[in-house]
Amino acid sequence: QSVLTQPPSVSGAPGQRVTISCTGSSSNIGAGYDVHWYQQLPGTAPKLLIYGNSNRPSGVPDRFSGSKSGTSASLAITGLQAEDEADYYCQSYDSSLSGSNWVFGGGTKLTVL
Amino acid sequence: QVQLVQSGAEVKKPGASVKVSCKASGYTFTSYAMHWVRQAPGQRLEWMGWINAGNGNTKYSQKFQGRVTITRDTSASTAYMELSSLRSEDTAVYYCARAPYIVVGGYMDVWGKGTTVTVSS
Lengths: 113, 121
Known about the structure:
The structure holds 2 protein chains of 2 kinds.
Chain A: E1 9-12, E2 18-23, E3 36-40, E4 47-50, E5 64-69, E6 72-77, E7 86-96, E8 99-104, E9 108-112
Parallel strand pairs in A: 1-9
Antiparallel strand pairs in A: 2-6, 3-4, 3-7, 5-6, 7-8, 7-9
Chain B: E1 3-6, E2 10-12, E3 18-25, E4 33-39, E5 45-52, E6 58-60, E7 68-73, E8 78-83, E9 92-99, E10 110-111, E11 115-119
C-alpha cells in the first residue's frame, strides 16, 4: 500500500486532456513537501517530468503541467498523443513517527485510445 | 552529457548479497547526491536510500535498514548499492538516480538504465 495514492489507470483519446491525481496526507504533501512527477515508458527507466510541483525540466513539452493543493497534487496532460502512453508516478517525502522517506505513488497507467 | 551507467544483470541465490554499481559522468560527482530506487516486476517504484557523494553521508529506508549499504568511490565517480540476505521478493530492477540538490524531499533528475537482479534457487 502506497503512502501516495494514484488511480491505477486513466485513458483518453488523442487530442484530449487527462489528469492524474496524487493523494497524500499531513505527513507528506500536506506537510509542505514538494511533489514531483515521472514518466516511465514501457521497458525504460523513469524520466523526470515535473519538479517542485509545477516546474518542467528543459525539453518537456508544455502539454504537461502540475499543481498542488492541500494534501493532493495533479498532473495534467493536454493534447494527448500516442507517445504519451506510459506509467506516471508522483513522488514526495514523508516524515512521520515511523521514520522519514522519499515516497512514490503506486503509479498510473495512461492509455491513449 | 550527464550519464549514469549501471553494472550488468545479476542472478543470485537466496541468502546471498549483490552489489550494483553506478558510474557517473558529465558532471562533478561530489556536488550531488545519489538515490537508489527499485522496481519489482509490475510494481511501483520503491526508494531504498541515498548518499551524499561529497561527504559520504547516507540515509536508508526503514524497510531496508540493516540489509542495504550505499557507498561511493569519488576517484571513480561511482556509487554502489549492496543488498544482503537476498530473498525472492528482492527480484527487481534497481536504479540509481541523481539528486540535483541535497535537500530533503528533492527530486531525481537523471536516472540510470537499471540493473536487473534475479534471486532464485
